Amino acid sequence: MTNQYFATVARGLEEIAAKELEKLGAKNVNPDFTGVYFEGDKALLYKVNIWSRIIFRILVPIHTINSKNAEDLYNNARKIDWSDYIQIDQTFAVNCTGKNQELNHSHFTALQIKNAIVDQQRERYNRRSNIDVKNPDILINAHIYEDQCILSLDSSGDSLHRRGYRPAMGVAPLKESLAAALLEMANWTPDIPFLDPMCGSGILPIEAALKSLNIAPGLSRNRFNFEQWPDFDAALCDQIIDDAIQQQKHELDAPIFGSDQDFEIVQQAIINAKKSDLDHHIKITQVALENIEAPTDHGIIICNPPYGKRLGNSQELGSLYKLLGDVFKQRFKGWTAYVLSGNKELTKKIGLRTSGRIPVYNGSLPCTLLKYELY
Questions:
Q1: Residue 85 belongs to domain spanning
Q2: Residue 7: Cβ-neighbour burial (10 angstroms; 0-12, 13-18, 19+)
Q3: Do the Cβ atoms of 52 and 218 come closer than 8 Å?
Q4: Residue 319 domain-assigned (yes or no)
C-alpha cells in the first residue's frame, strides 16, 4: 500500500534530502519549504527512519480538518475516531506548527487538539490517555495553514539528527544532520581522505566515518515512534534492520582525521567517537592549527571555524582566518578545502580565491560553505 509522507528538514537542505529519499526508493519526491513530500509503502517508512542522514522526522498525514478558530478546530478534531491511532494505555503529545489569524499561539492550538482527544476518550471509556511531552508513545503533529489543520502522526519521535553518540558537545556544535549534508555538498566520497582541522566535538569526522562504513544512523537509536502504532510490522522492521547490518563495511576506504588545539575539546571528540564505536577508525589528535600538516597528498577538508555570531569576537577572529588561509596555501597543495562561515568579513581574511559558494543555514544563521581548490 502506497502512502504519502512528509519529511521535515533544516532550511536549505530540502534538495539534498530529496536526493537522499530518491536513493532510498521514495516515489513522487517533491521538495517544499523545510520539508519534502514523498510516497512509498510501510517498508520505505521504516527504511527512511533507519537510514536517513539528513532528515529530522517523518510525518504521516492522517486528516485535514477545518480550523478557522479554536472552537472549529476542537469540534472537528473531536469528530476523528482517535481509537484508530491511540490506545487508552498509551501516552501521547501534540506538537503544533504554523498559525492563522485566530490560532496564532502553537501551545494553545495543541491544547485544543489534546482536549478534543481526551474528551472523546472520557466520553467513550470514562478513562483517558496520559500526556507525556518528553517521550510519548504517540506523537501527533498539527500544522495550521490558513483555515485548515493538517494532522499527522510522527513516525520518528525524537529527531533523527540525534544519533545517540553525542554525550559530549563543544560550545557551538553542528547538528549531525547538517554535518552529513556538508559532506554531500562537498561531494566527499569514502575513497577520499577527510580532515577537519577544527573538529570540536568530532561531529564531521564521525559522520564521515558512518557514511564511509555504510552504517545506518538509526541503528543506534533505542526506538522509533512507529513501533507503538497498531499496524507496526515487527518482522518487516527486523528484516530492514538486519539488511542494514549486513550492508555495513568493516574498514575505511580512505583515512579520516580530526584535530583541535584544545585538549578538553579533543577529549570530547574522542568520547563521542568511542560512543559511536568508531574510535579505532578515526584518528583524532590535539594539534594547534599553526602546527598542522597534511596527513596525505590529497583529500577534502571541511571545517566550521567560529564566526563571531556565537563564539568570540569577530575582530579577534580575523587572525584565525588569516592563519587558516596561510596553512591551506602552504601545506595542503592537492587538497580541496571547504569552510562554513556566517561572517563575510572574516572569510575575506582567508586570502584565497573561492571556486564555489553554497548558501546554507546553521540553525537560524545564514551561512556560506566556501570552496577552495588548493594548488
A1: 3-154
A2: buried
A3: yes
A4: yes
Distinct helix (H) and strand (E) counts, the chain: 10, 14
Residue 361 maps to a domain:
yes
pLDDT digits (tens, 9 = 90+) for 339-375: 999 999 999 999 999 999 999 999 889 999 999 999 8
Percent of the chain with pLDDT over 70: 96
Length of the chain: 375
Question: Does residue 160 lie in a domain region?
Answer: no
**Residue 244 is placed in which grid cell?**
542494514
- Residue 2, all three cell numbers: 502506497
Q: Is residue 332 a contact partner of residue 361, using CB atoms and an 8 Å limit?
A: no
- The confidence score (pLDDT) of residue 309 equals 54
How far, in Å, CA of 36 to CA of 183, rounded? Answer: 20
* CATH code (residue 41): 3.30.2130.30
How is 278-315 classified by DSSP, letter by letter? -TTTEEEEE--GGG---SSSSEEEEE----SSSSS-HH
361-to-19, 73, 177, 186 alpha-carbon distances in Å: 18, 34, 12, 15
Domain match, 136 and 261 both = no
Residue listed under C-alpha cell 569576537: 313
User: Looking at the structure, do residues 358 and 276 belong to the same domain, yes or no?
Assistant: yes
Calculate mean pLDDT across residues 171-189. Answer: 91
Q: What cell numbers appear for 119 in the block?
A: 474528551
pLDDT tens for 90-126 read 999 999 999 999 999 999 999 999 999 999 999 999 9
d(CA 151, CA 38): 17
Q: By C-alpha distance, which of 310, 280, 293 is closest to 169?
A: 310
